[in-house]
Specification:
heterodimer, A: mainly alpha, two-stranded antiparallel sheet, 5 helices, 2 strands, 81% helix, B: mainly alpha, Sodium/glucose cotransporter, 2 domains, two-stranded antiparallel ribbon, 27 helices, 2% strand, globular
C-alpha cells in the first residue's frame, strides 16, 4: 500500500516540476505589442526588460536549475513523508496490531518492527534513486 | 588484476587445504585457529593489492567505487562486533521493547539517501569537517570543532571494537583478550596504511560477505534443526513463537512480544520506544564514519543506489537478529522445568557455563530450573547458537570468523576517518598547506600507526579495568544522542536551507549539546529520575530526539535573527546551490 502511494506522489511531484519549468518559459515569452496609452506601454516595457533578464538567466541555466531544485525539494518532502510510515506511523497502533496474528502465530506489531518496516525502507530508497536518476537525466538532456 | 586473481586462487586453495588437513587430523582447535588467522591473512592480501601512492585514493578511494561494492562497504562499516555478537541477544533479553535497535539502526539510511548522501558526494569536498567549514563561510573554527568531535566519537567507538575483537579471540581460542585487542589494532593499521580508503573499502567488501555468510550459516543450521523452514525461517517461526510465549506465560513471565514491559535506554512506554528509535536513526546520519562512505562513490547516482544496497545488506543481518533471538529463547525455555542435574548434563550448558555467559543456580532449592534461575549474557545467543542446536564444531568457528570480520570492518572505517581528519583537516589545512602529495601520504600513514597504537593501548586498558570499559560502552551508546544533537541538524539544514549561517550553525550545535549532555549524564550516570510524559518515562536515547529538535529550532531562529541568507558569503550560497544541480 505504501509503495503505491509513494509512486503516485512521485508522479505528481514530477508533474509539478514540469509545471514549474513551463511557468518560467511562459514568463520569458509573452511580449505585448507596443501602442495604446502611455501607461500600458510603460508597464509593458518593464515586463519586456524583466523577460529579457529572465531569458538571459535561462540561457545561463539558472532557471532550469531553479526548476530542478523545486522538483528535488518536492521529491524530498514526499519521500521523507513516506519514510514516516515505516519509521513512525506503522508503529502507532501497537495495541490493535498486537491482536492481529499472522503466519501461524506472529503478532503483527512484532512483524512490523522486525521485518516489514525495514523492507519498506529499502523499497523507498530504491524508488527514490530511480526517480531522481530519471529526473537528473531529463534535466541534463533538456 | 590477473596477478590479483591468481594470488587469490592460490591463497584460497592453500587456506582450505590447511584448515581441512588440520580438521582431518582431529585437531579441531588448530583447524579453527588456522581458519580464523587465515581470514586475517586474506584481508591483508586484499589491502596490499589495493596499495596506492595517490592522495586521492588514500582520502576518498579515488571517488571510484560502484554501487554494489559501496553497499557492502557501508554495511560492514556500519555493523560492528556488537551488532554481530550482541544484537540478537539484546532482543532475546528485551523482546519487543528492544526493537528500537532494529528500526533505529536501519531506517536512518533512508534519511541518508534522501537528504544527505547524494549531496555530500556532489559537494566535492573530501571530509565532513571540510564540508562544514565550507558551509560555514570558510570559518576555520567550524572545521576544528568538527574534527575534534569526529575524533572523540570515532576513537571511543574504535576502542569498543578492539575490546570486542579481544573478547572474540579470547572466547574461541582461549588466548588472552588483550592479545586479541592489540593484534586487531595492528592488523587494522596494516589495512589502512597500505592504501587508505582504497584498501579499506575492498577489505570491507570482503569482510561484509564473510560476516553475513557466517551469521546466516549458523542461523540457517539452527533454523533447520528447529524446524522453522516453512517455507522460510523469517516467516516460519509463528508456531515456535506461540509455544515459547505459552511457556513464558505458564511460568509467570510476560510473553516475548508483549509491548512496553521492560525499560529501554532508561525509559519506558510507547513514546520512549518511538523517540529512541528516531534518535538512533537521526544519530546514524550524524556519525562521521557513516558519512565518510558517501565520498567514495563514482557519482551522485551511485551514491543513491549505493545507500539502497547498503541498507539491503544491513537488513540481511537486522531482519535475521529477531528470529535468532526467538530461537535462542526457545532453546532456553527447553531448560525451564528440567531437574537441575539433567540441565547441567546438557552439552551446550556444560560448554558455556565456564565462560559465565550462562548462569544456572537452583535458587529456591526445589531441584528444578525456573526461568529466573537460568540467566544469560546477551553474547551467548549468537556465539552459543550452534551448540544449543547441536550443530558440528565448525559452525562455531565460522561464527568466530564472522564476528571478527564485523569488529575489524568497523574498526577499519573508524581509523580511516580519524587518519584522514588528522591529515587533511588538521595537517594540510592548518600546519603545512603546501605539502607534497608524497609527504601527505606518509603523514596519513603515520597517523594510522599512531592511532592504532593509542587505540590498542586504550583497548587493553578497557579489558583490564571494568569501570573504564563500562564508560566506553556507555559512550558508544550515547554517541547516537550526541550525533543527533550536534551534526545531523547542521548537515541537513546546511544542504537544504541557504538561510543557515555560521551563527545559526554554532548556536544549534551548542544548544543541542546543552540539552543533551546534562540529561544524559544526569539520567544515565547519576541516577536522576527521567522526565515523564503521560506515564512514559523518557530515557537517555529518546532524549536525543528532543535535543535534535532543539538544535534544529535554535539554528533556524538564530540564523533568521542574524540576517539569514544575507550573512552568508556569495561563494557559500553558490556552494549550496551547486549541491542541488543535476550532475
Amino acid at each position: 500500500m505504501d509503495s503505491g502511494s509513494a509512486s503516485r506522489s512521485a508522479h505528481t511531484a514530477e508533474k509539478g516540476g514540469e509545471r514549474g519549468a513551463s511557468r518560467s518559459t511562459e514568463l520569458t515569452s509573452p511580449r505585448k505589442p507596443p501602442g495604446g496609452d502611455p501607461e500600458a506601454v510603460d508597464s509593458g516595457g518593464g515586463e519586456v526588460a524583466e523577460g529579457a533578464e529572465r531569458a538571459e538567466r535561462a540561457e545561463r541555466g539558472v532557471d532550469r536549475y531553479g526548476a530542478y531544485w523545486r522538483k528535488l525539494k518536492r521529491i524530498t518532502v514526499v519521500w521523507m513523508l513516506a519514510w514516516t510510515v515505516p519509521a513512525i506511523i506503522m508503529h502507532l497502533p501497537i495495541g490493535a496490531a498486537s491482536q492481529v496474528i499472522i503466519l501461524n502465530g506472529i503478532p503483527l506489531h512484532w512483524f512490523n518492527a522486525a521485518f516489514l518496516a525495514i523492507v519498506v525502507g529499502i523499497a523507498l530508497i530504491f524508488m527514490y534513486a530511480y526517480v531522481m536518476d530519471r529526473t537528473d537525466r531529463a534535466f541534463k538532456g533538456a | 588484476m590477473f596477478l590479483g586473481k591468481r594470488t587469490f586462487a592460490v591463497f584460497a586453495i592453500a587456506y582450505i587445504a590447511v584448515v581441512a588437513g588440520l580438521a582431518l587430523t582431529g585437531s579441531t582447535f588448530m583447524a579453527a585457529a588456522a581458519a580464523l588467522f587465515g581470514s586475517l591473512f586474506l584481508y591483508m592480501i586484499i589491502a596490499f593489492l589495493m596499495r596506492t601512492r595517490s592522495a586521492g585514493d588514500f582520502y576518498v578511494a579515488g571517488r571510484s567505487i560502484g554501487a554494489l561494492p559501496i553497499g557492502s562497504s557501508i554495511a560492514s562499516n556500519w555493523m560492528s562486533g556488537a551488532s554481530f555478537v550482541s544484537m540478537a541477544g539484546t532482543i532475546a533479553l528485551l523482546g519487543f521493547d528492544g526493537m528500537p535497535y532494529i528500526l533505529g539502526w536501519t531506517l536512518g539510511y533512508c534519511i541518508a539517501a534522501f537528504m544527505i548522501a547524494p549531496f555530500i558526494r556532489k559537494s566535492g569536498t573530501y571530509t565532513v569537517p571540510e564540508f562544514i567549514e565550507t558551509r560555514a563561510s570558510n570559518w576555520p573554527l567550524a572545521r576544528v570543532t568538527a574534527v575534534l568531535m569526529l575524533i572523540i566519537i570515532s576513537f571511543t567507538y574504535l576502542v569498543a571494537q578492539l575490546v570486542a575483537t579481544g573478547v572474540i579471540v579470547g572466547r574461541f581460542l582461549g588466548l588472552p583478550a588483550i592479545f586479541g585487542a592489540i593484534l586487531a589494532s595492528a592488523i587494522v593499521a596494516i589495512f589502512a596504511g597500505t592504501g587508505g580508503w582504497k584498501s579499506i573499502v575492498w577489505v570491507n567488501v570482503a569482510q561484509y560477505w564473510i560476516l553475513i555468510v557466517a551469521y546466516w550459516v549458523a542461523f540457517l543450521g539452527a533454523a533447520y534443526v528447529a524446524g522453522i523452514f516453512n517455507p522460510w525461517p523469517h516467516f516460519g517461526y509463528g508456531e515456535l513463537l506461540s509455544q515459547l510465549e505459552a511457556k513464558e506465560v505458564a511460568n509467570g513471565l510476560a510473553a516475548f512480544t508483549e509491548p512496553f514491559v521492560k525499560a529501554f535506554g532508561g525509559g519506558t512506554g510507547h513514546a520512549n520506544w518511538l523517540l529512541s528509535a528516531l534518535c538512533l536513526m537521526l544519530g546514524t546520519v550524524g556519525l562521521p564514519h557513516v558519512l565518510s562512505q558517501f565520498y567514495l562513490v563514482k557519482n551522485v547516482k551511485t551514491a543513491r543506489y549505493g545507500v539502497g544496497w547498503g541498507l539491503t545488506f544491513i537488513a540481511l543481518l537486522y531482519v535475521t537478529a529477531p528470529v535468532y533471538a526467538i530461537l535462542a529463547r526457545y532453546a532456553f525455555s527447553g531448560v525451564w522445568g528440567m531437574p537441575i542435574d539433567q540441565a547441567l548434563d546438557l552439552s551446550w550448558i556444560q560448554k558455556w557455563i565456564p565462560t559465565e555467559l550462562i548462569k544456572l543456580a537452583d535458587l529456591n532449592g526445589d531441584g528444578l530450573i525456573q526461568p529466573p534461575e537460568l540467566s544469560f549474557h546477551n553474547d551467548i545467543v549468537v556465539v552459543g547458537m550452534p551448540d544449543m542446536f547441536g550443530l558440528p564444531w565448525f559452525f562455531a568457528a565460522i561464527v568466530a570468523i564472522g564476528g571478527m570480520a564485523a569488529a575489524l570492518s568497523t574498526a577499519n572505517g573508524l581509523i580511516m576517518v580519524m587518519a584522514v581528519g588528522a591529515t587533511r583537516d588538521i595537517y594540510k589545512r592548518f600546519i603545512n598547506p603546501k605539502t607534497t602529495e608524497r609527504r601527505e601520504l606518509w603523514i596519513g600513514r603515520g597517523m594510522v600507526v599512531l592511532l592504532s597504537l593509542l587505540s590498542g593501548a586504550f583497548g587493553a586498558l578497557a579489558l583490564q579495568d571494568k569501570t573504564f570499559s563500562t564508560y566506553v560502552a556507555l559512550l558508544v551508546g550515547w554517541a547516537f544522542v550526541f550525533a543527533a544533537a550536534s551534526f545531523t541538524p547542521v548537515v541537513i539544514l546546511g544542504i537544504f536551507w541557504k538561510g543557515l549561517n555560521k551563527y545559526g550553525l554554532v548556536a544549534g550545535m551548542v544548544c543541542g549539546m546543552a540539552i543533551a549532555l546534562p540529561y544524559v549524564i544526569g539520567v544515565g550516570l547519576m541516577g536522576m529520575t527521567p522526565v515523564a510524559v503521560m506515564g512514559n518515562r523518557i530515557g537517555t536515547l529518546a532524549w536525543g530526539t528532543i535535543a535534535f529538535l532543539a538544535n534544529l529550532l535554535s539554528s533556524v531562529l538564530v540564523s533568521l535573527a542574524t540576517g539569514g541568507k544575507k550573512a552568508n558569503k556569495p561563494e557559500t550560497i553558490r556552494f549550496v546551490e551547486e549541491l542541488k544541480t543535476p550532475e
